[in-house]
Amino acid sequence: NFLINNQGLESGKMKMCNIRTGLDKACLKEAIIDHLFYKQGCEPEGASINDVYLAVSYALRDRLLHHGLKTFDAVLEDEDIRLVSYLSAEFLMGPQLGANLIDLNIFDEMRQAVTELGFDFKLVLEQEEEPGLGNGGLGRLASCYMDSLASLEIPAIGYGIRYEFGIFDQEIKDGWQVEITDKWLRYGNPWEIARPESSVNVYFGGYTEQYSNEIGKVLRRWVPSYVVKGIPYDTSEMGYKVASCNFLRLWKSEAIESFDFSSFNHGDYYKAVMDKIESENISKILYPNDELYVGKQLRLKQQYFFSSCSLQDMMRMHLENQGKPQDFHKKWAIQLNDTHPAISVAELMRILLDECKLDWKTAWETTQQTFSYTNHTLLPEALEKWPLDLFKALLPRLLEIIYEINYRFLEEVKRRFPEDNNILSRLSLIEETGSSYVRMANLACVGSYAINGVASLHTELLKKNILNDWVSMYPDKFYNITNGITPRRFVVLSNPGLSKLITKNIGDTWPQYLNELKKLEPFAYDANFKEQFRQVKIENKRILSSVIKDRIGIVVNPSSMFDVQVKRIHEYKRQHLNVLHILTLYLRIKSNPDIEIQPRTFIFWGKAAPGYFMAKLLIKLINSVGNLVNNDFDVRDRIKVVFFPDFNVKNAQLIYPAADLSEQISTSGKEASGTGNMKFALNGALTIGTLDGANIEIREEVGYENFFLFGLTASQVIEVKQNNYDPRFIYENNMELNAVIKFINSGILSNGDRNLFKPITDNLLYGDPYLLLADYPLYISCQDIVAETWKDKDKWNTMAVLNVARMGKFSSDRSINDYCENIWKVKPFKLKIE
Ligand code: F58
């Protein structure tokens, strides 16, 4: 057995449970009762559902700890093990209870234990407030990767920020998004353990100066003006059906105890208290922007705070185990999840130079062999660059180090490209176009030994465009690692019906080896299997329908096609193209109420950045269209439009299993990869999509005939834009489009206000930066083909089964294996627990 001996102790004739480690039902029951009593201070009879949730979670955490502590004792001491450190400003973990039960393989035992104690297990699972410590794809990817690292037995720590307030909760009032503060910690978080004894100090502000050391060598040092304490909170990250367990270490900022005594002593009580509040502000809140960089000082503080805490932590462990500073890279492979932790490059240099007293050359060699960097975007507005003044005031020593890195690097560039002055300014870590900035992507590129994009097209475009000069400089640093998703959370946990059906037919090892799904291919032509597959889908749709009814009062028909677009609301993701299609169908019905229309339920789900006007207006538009269509007599329920509030991981797990059609309709060349597209297809939804991000690879895997493709390619997009693109021409020549746009501005959707949605239509007619109108005719004809295909349910189901069978490539295990082999050069460590 790979797990801890769970049989307990034999004492006389009675078999006793180990209430901390036992895994059978009886032990679990005892453990829950014990935690109810000693942690929650109640008997089962008096326990609230939250008491039960906490007791169940503590019981489970006990079991995880055994694995986690043993794993790290073993790997830190073993000189030959290189650990992965995944640095990310976001981890969108999702609820922990269900996922941990699946990993430990005791989901059914726990369900029985809880039920026999007289509680509703479903309610217990629902009680968990998920930690929404991320915005979207990037944060969720980090969590999928943590799951795969653990499941593949790769020793790893995820490092990030323990935001007190994660991504806001979304409510819809009168069709508009309203943001509500997320308070995920309000009822306690049973999964984390604070480790104040491992706190570190992080310094800010002040100035740098020259000094001479004992032997008269002239050096520089930082005289900071204030200090903040970072306290680590650890959450276990269990692997699926293996013994080893990693952890996620998130940093909380606090004021140091001896904080600013001088202010106190000088009677400046107010300043002392304000400074304390400022320190604690660092980890207060997650910035809710996706794909848009905002140059806020607090954000830079967050980035430096968690980078510095994490590096100090790793260095401490390394030195405690007799490692030499110059061998740091042999113990740690650090992955920079986007540029948010890129300041780490300069921070590791500072630690090696100023604290470990290494010379520049050695320090730089060590640094460059430590880091690798993942880019997640092609949008220029997402690239981080910090105003030089702001940077200098906050991190003067770091800036000095960046200048030195830059100086030496540009000397190398000059040697390589003596004729080319422009390349110097493009590769420089400092931008000097009017105002000056520190370019974080350039810092990440120069300080890393590997740079990767997150899908084939994305990597290609990175190399061709925004990182092209870096390819000239370091051609061997570039890799593509296509993203992946964890099948444990996104199938086993969230789609138990499909999981059981798969397991019944091909065995139970597919969640670890997702390519085994290939064995399902023959079943795509097996009537009996397809019938069961259809039943699973319809049941999932029924569950979602009843949630929709409960939460927003709209009745939807589970046998209609569930056409779903869930993702952050963004112009490049083109939720409004979807709306144009809905209104096209609506106007077709209005002009001919008896027209044959395949029943469809359009479901939207997603948050808009609070400051993103167009995205918020799009939400209002979707809701207005819903109001109209859902209540129009002529429509006769053939189409329904639902905007479901508050997209998060918990809700996401409901929706992927229930979708028939997945909308992946971004403008080609804009979506780096997408991962929602993978979650849908793996759960048997067909995709309507452009040749963008990972759609391209999904289509190659599932077969061109099982994917609804439309739209301009990335190179056509550029060509169209260069050739004086005129959206008005399309508008004037396409009758359906013309009618739809006029309809939006007719005031019917907006209580007579003809101007409400004008910012959207004007943007389309006079510019259309995301080429909606260019793609509209292609999208509509493709949607007509989708509807035609839907009529033939047997064919649809064959296509859906083939999608599931051929999605093996997109397991995050494959991505992590790629990182291990090609970038990190690390191997699994097989832990045995007796
Ligand atoms: C996403 N980026 C990409 N950024 O848009 C998506 O295509 C990709 O699949 C995913 O990363 C994973 O590689 C993304 O989610 C953010 O949310 C950032 C948060 C911090 C501010 C800047 C955007």
Description:
The chain has 834 residues and is an alpha/beta fold. It is 47% helix and 16% strand. It has three domains: 1-77 and 95-129, no CATH class; 78-94 and 130-483 and 817-824, Rossmann fold (3-Layer(aba) Sandwich), CATH 3.40.50.2000; 539-807, Glycogen Phosphorylase B (Rossmann fold), CATH 3.40.50.2000. Helix 1 packs across helix 4 (107-116), helix 3 crosses helix 19 (487-493) and helix 9 packs across helix 11. It is globular, with a radius of gyration of 28 Å. Residues 1-14 have low confidence and may be disordered. The protein binds N-[(cyclohexylcarbonyl)carbamoyl]-beta-D-glucopyranosylamine (F58). N-[(cyclohexylcarbonyl)carbamoyl]-beta-D-glucopyranosylamine binds at residues 135-138, 141, 289-291, 376-377, 382, 454, 483, 671-675, 693. This is Alpha-1,4 glucan phosphorylase. It is an enzyme of class 2 (transferase). One of its GO terms (biological process) is glycogen catabolic process.
Within the CATH hierarchy, at the fold level, what is the topology of the largest domain? Answer: Rossmann fold
Which bin fits the share of residues in helices? 40-55%
Strand segment tally? 27
Radius of gyration: 28 Å
Strand count, sense and closure of the main sheet?
Answer: 10 strands, mixed
End-to-end separation: 9 Å
Binned strand content: 15-25%
Number of domains: 3
The CATH H-level homologous superfamily of the largest domain: Glycogen Phosphorylase B
Q: What is the architecture of the largest domain at the second tier of CATH?
A: 3-Layer(aba) Sandwich
Associated small molecules: N-[(cyclohexylcarbonyl)carbamoyl]-beta-D-glucopyranosylamine
User: What does the overall shape look like?
Assistant: globular
Poorly predicted ranges: 1-14
Q: Helical region count?
A: 33
Q: How would you state the average pLDDT, rounded?
A: 95
